[in-house]
Amino acid sequence: MTSERIDSPSVDPVAERREAMTEILASWDLEGAMPDVTGMKVVREYVVGWLELPLALRKVSERAEQFRSEETHSAQ
Question: Is residue 64 situated within a structural domain?
């Protein structure tokens, strides 16, 4: 059974979650993306252990795609 939330932060140690958060933010910076309220919410939920890494990455990726789509439409 796959869960979107984890019940115990011990499943994914804090140090690993913080490192992953740093990588996510660095990725956003390389892409020129500024995290919005939604993006930062995903990062915070991951760091405190409410989201597993694959789901957090998927949500961040979906949000980035949404930004790209909005930029494309606004440029037309």
Answer: yes
